[in-house]
Amino acid sequence: xxxxxxxxxxxxxxxxxxxxxxxxxxxxxxxxxxxxxxxxxxxxxxxxxxxxxxxxxxxxxxxxxxxxxxxxxxxxxxxxxxxxxxxxxxxxxxxxxxxxxxxxxxxxxxxxxxxxxxxxxxxxxxxxxxxxxxxxxxxxxxx
Length: 143
Hints:
With 143 residues, this protein is an all-alpha fold. The protein has helices spanning 17-26, 35-38, 41-50, 54-59, 74-83, 99-110, 128-142, and strands at 9-10, 86-87.
């Protein structure tokens, strides 16, 4: 199944992630795993989103055969998570600086090992092209 960019869930659009990413842009050390001890809002955000903090995710026992996707390079994770339906890049398509804080909880939730995926409301709005086609059909019938 090929996902289009519109079908992907964007990590940066989840509550709190954009603010944390902005802080990581301003302060490079914010993206490091050690920053979670100094900035508890990182774990709080992960817990709110995935039901599992980044620190707790590190302690979760992985099932046999787990290939540790959370330990791969950010570029490899971007591709792998995109295949799973998640966009973990910023608005310029660069891997999020805070991806390291969220990758383990996200992977564990995706695979059903621990935590949960954030609720996402289904978009019931019709596509723009469908509305336009419907309007064209109405005009054609009037002729």
